[in-house]
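Memo to structure team: turn this sequence into structure tokens by end of day. - J.P.
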Amino acid sequence: MPKRPTRRPVSAEQQRSCTRKRRYRSQGDALDAALLAGVERQRVAYPCPLCGHWHLASA
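Reply from structure team:
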């Protein structure tokens, strides 16, 4: 049976940065939210390695 890759421990700082942000199911949902807020040119969507959802970040 193949070994599963081990995950690095998540630092408290990384965990806080994830939990403070809104989570979106898809990149499209995240970008739609930025569009509705009128900040689509100032934001980029990225997949979060911690929660598996999408977040928005400043461009």
